[in-house]
Amino acid sequence: MSLPLPLPLPLPLPLVLLHALPLDSSLWDGTARVLRAAGHQVLTPDQCGFGAAPPPDGPPSLDRVADGLARELDRQGIGEVALAGCSMGGYVAMAFLRRHPDRVRALGLLAARGTADSAEAAGRRLRFADAVLDEPARAGLVAATTPSLLGATTRARRPRLTARVGDLALAAPARSVAWAQRAIAARTDSTATLRAADLPAVVVIGAEDELVSLDEACRTAEALPRGRLVVLPGVGHLAPLEAPEATAEILAGLLAQARVRAEAEAAAC
Q1: Model-level pTM greater than 0.90?
Q2: CA 209/CA 239 separation, integer angstroms
Q3: What is the DSSP string of 206-232?
Q4: Per-domain residue ranges of the chain
Q5: Residues 223, 114 contacting (CB under 8 angstroms)
Q6: 250, 221 contact by CB (below 8 A)
Q7: Tell me, what's the pLDDT at 6?
Q8: Which strands, in side-by-side order, build the sheet including 201-206?
Q9: Number of neighbouring beta carbons within 10 Å of residue 222
Q10: Which ranges of the chain have pLDDT less than 50?
């Protein structure tokens, strides 16, 4: 009597990391380094006119960014992924989940709310988008707004990192920043999409985040059927920069959850 052949183990799940506005994929350098050293396949694409990505065209829309990511994954022969995004990257991740749900096997949302902007918040974004295109005033605008991307502890203890974020923000193309702000302001509420996402998920918030509140992060986690909330002490809006090792540990745990679920699904077939 022949014995049944063992089922093949699921292939390692690629992890796609999407950066925040107005930075580029270098946001993830520290976290990606730790994850790759542990054997994970990690992709850190630049988005919509930042870093090496071409300038955005057409009306501002996160759906366009999400569909562009899908095309890039197709080009690389990648189907299903674990997807994590910080701030703007989180909003792109939610748009990707809504438009390409069968391709997402695990989800990480860092410093991103699941709801749409209020009219007041959207208005602030649109005014910023207009102001950032005023070249003579741009340096002052960046200097006034960039510190809020980091937590108070980071600003006090790590002045070099604060300066680096300011330099990256100033180097970002103004038109790309304006386009992205308008796209974020126009995004739809993702609560229904999150509620339908029966997959391993984690929501990460810095305890010192000045842009997304803990209550908002809690509501985002509660919308996800398998959502887990992680609060990072002494961290602001940019956990991958402020706490890269802790962020890597959280995402490694997410990948482990996704693998356990894939193995269970394979065994049930």
Answers
A1: yes
A2: 9
A3: ETT-SSS-HHHHHHHHHHSTTEEEEEE
A4: 15-115+188-268
A5: yes
A6: no
A7: 39
A8: 42-43, 15-18, 81-86, 104-110, 201-206, 227-232
A9: 15
A10: 1-9
SS3 label, residue 15: strand
Q: Provide the 8-state DSSP code for 40.
A: -
pLDDT for 14: 98
Per DSSP, the three-state class of 119 is: helix
Domain 15-115+188-268 has CATH 3.40.20.10: no
Per-residue model confidence (pLDDT) at position 11: 61
Q: Please list, residue by residue across 183-195, b when 16 or more beta carbons sit within 10 angstroms of its beta carbon and e when fewer do.
A: bbbbbeebbebbe
**Can you tell me the distance from the alpha carbon of 94 to that of 66, in angstroms, rounded to the nearest whole number?**
9
Structure tokens at 94: 């939610």
Q: How far is CA 190 from CA 127, 147, 241, in A?
A: 24, 28, 26
81 closest CA partner among 217, 254, 221, 264? 254
Q: What is the model's pLDDT at position 269? A: 66
pLDDT at 265: 83
